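**Backbone description:**
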Amino acid sequence: MFAVIKTGGKQYRVSADDVFEVERLAGEAGDSLTFAEVLMVGSTIGAPFVSGASVIAEIVEQTRGPKVISFKKRRRQNSKRSRGHRQDLTRIRITEIRGASNESKSA
């Protein structure tokens, strides 16, 4: 069974034992998270969320993404600017998908 969750302004299609990175979430490695903003579970589509559905995840580690360089140069002006940025990320593992109350055991 799969679900579509919303976190960090993005949507992710997840299933049990998936490991992926999302934008920074509070917590330490080993902590458990519950995502209540579930947009879809199996074939049940929420409006906007599926009532009674949740996704349980475990934090694997807190990490940072690759460095992104923003370089601006103004030609013939002897002017340039270089900035770097690294996004804070959280690597999580999906442990359980709890469907809506009427569909929890059927899928």
Observations:
- The CA atoms of residues 52 and 102 lie 9 Å apart.
- The chain has one domain: 2-98.
